[in-house]
Structure prediction request, 653 residues.
Amino acid sequence: MRLLALLSLLMAYPGDGETPLLVGGCAHGETNIQALADLGLGNFVWIPASVYATSNVPWDEENTTLRDVEVAVRNDMHFMVSVRRGLGDTLRPGGYQYGGHADEFLDESEVRAIGLLVGDRLWWLHGEELDADMHQQGLRPSFRTRSPELFRYQTRAGGRLSFEGELARLRQRYDGWGGRFLPNLCMTYHHSGWRSGSPLVIAELLEHLPTTELQLAYLRGGARQFRGEWGVWISPWWIGQIPTEDKAMWPIEQATMGGGHSASSLRRCLYLSYVSGARLLCTQDTPPLLSGDGNGGFRLGPWGRELADFWAYAREHSEPIEPTPGLAVLVDRDNGWCPAHLGINWALEETVWGKLPTDRTDRMLSSYLDVLLPGFGRTFEAVEERSDIYPGYFAATPHGPFDIVSSDVSSLELSAYPAVVCLGGLEMTPSLHSTLRAYVEGGGTLLINALQLCWREDWVDDPHLWGVSLGMGGRAWTRIFSATDIHLQEPVFSLEPGAWKEPWYAPVEVEPLSARVLANSTGGEPVLLENRFGEGRVYLSTPEFMQEGWGRQSARLGFFADLVGTMCEAVQPMDRGPTADISWITAQQGDDALLLLVNHASEAREVDLPGTWTAASVEVGAGGCMGSAVTVGAEDVALLRAVGQAARLARGE
Prediction:
């Protein structure tokens, strides 16, 4: 049934997005929703489930979900209302110790009643933390027995089909009730939301979840690949607390003066998501947004002030934004990898689709992601000490921004990226082979590993594209060599010839044909080759998954870490590397060019700008115009806008 539901929706890919920019907060009760509207907190409200404690407004016969909807409509607000949490139809209590949380909050009659109230207004039925539930259920055999239909798979492909089939089943149910299902995917499974037919996918940031910049890379890449739209809801929960400035108004235990995630964390999430192309941005919980004004009314709380400031800017610049990263990281569509040390260390190890073990290919993915996002993977010690805000919840992008796309991407969508790096295990299917061939022939630059050129454990030989013969001319055996160190003979990107001290590793034997050998091992075996094909070029690495030659926890090779970093830099508009602790991204909004600089450090940072950006102005953050540098405040942002001729210069036109 789950597979049939998926197959019925696979062709329902969304078209070009038309969702207006939606910004808002979470609230229950007429007074709270009215306060969001009156205090300028946006044009959108998340109406939570009736099981959520709100402390100042009860859930009773007068304060219902339908009453919340009436207030939202009266204030001309769009909204989403939580319809369920988790996967499957077996209700389960919350908490990782129970293996996730599954519940259904609304029945069909309630959903249809909402539809009658709303008319043509934009609204969604929100499914919360769906991939987190699969992850938590999959961790222990005892948890999996409660939803056995979800966990019968034994392969990565089976895991993906099971998960996407469940998403399609849920979407089919709630869309059939007259709503529009909005899946929240907050791990690394965002692409599955679009693949299972949802036109809009929403991610959860902060809480105890993967790094903001990592999730945004999946979202940007998925939105381009599937021509879809996306949004974020930003959670204030941290160490079991949420922030407030008014404990009297919000006496619930979790609302804490100075607790939870800081307002500066919200600010960084909002602007990173906005410039990355999000069309829906909202916050969770009301206590961080509102405080009492001493006269029986409301004033803005710590998160409320940030949200109001953001909305004041964003509503004046609400046109769709197209981010412009130059690098795509390509992963297999069946990948299913998730990072470790989420929550308070409830997931101590990286996992695959919840229950499958990781291998060397996953180590390749995570270790080279750590080149592009240093420190994104939290350590046990950082989580235990609660010192994982940065790096951990945020990570710098020292080499520039990148997107993550899946192996079922089309050559047309892939052609938007000047460079592609393949990370993790790949199945070189005929479709992917054709896509990569067209991508390189059309002018793309591809970095791929020899062991990613296999399909069903057999080489996919293409001497014209790869520039080598694999498996030594098709013989039934292939050698690996015992090698140390790497010697670069010719410049590549910004790397100059030289030697890299490396541990023992095992390069695969290839026979160079049209490819030039750029780097060798100490023994002379080819380690990196370059082949020109059509208008583009392929860089082929031969060490097994670009790692040392030991087990599944093998370390990456330093030479290839440098290569991936400089390859990313080569296709970015910043011709001088930004200061440490900065993540940044460029984008296009209408005819304007945008550059966002985000400082995660606890002190100000000065960032040098390329000459093409010196005519831009700072609209958010430092303010005013600048010359060759801009100072970004501690845990703050600077958003630069270039217009007219300055925008054309910034884009390199």
The CA atoms of residues 544 and 635 lie 39 Å apart. Residues 1-16 have pLDDT under 50 and may be disordered. DSSP finds 20 helices and 36 strands in the chain.
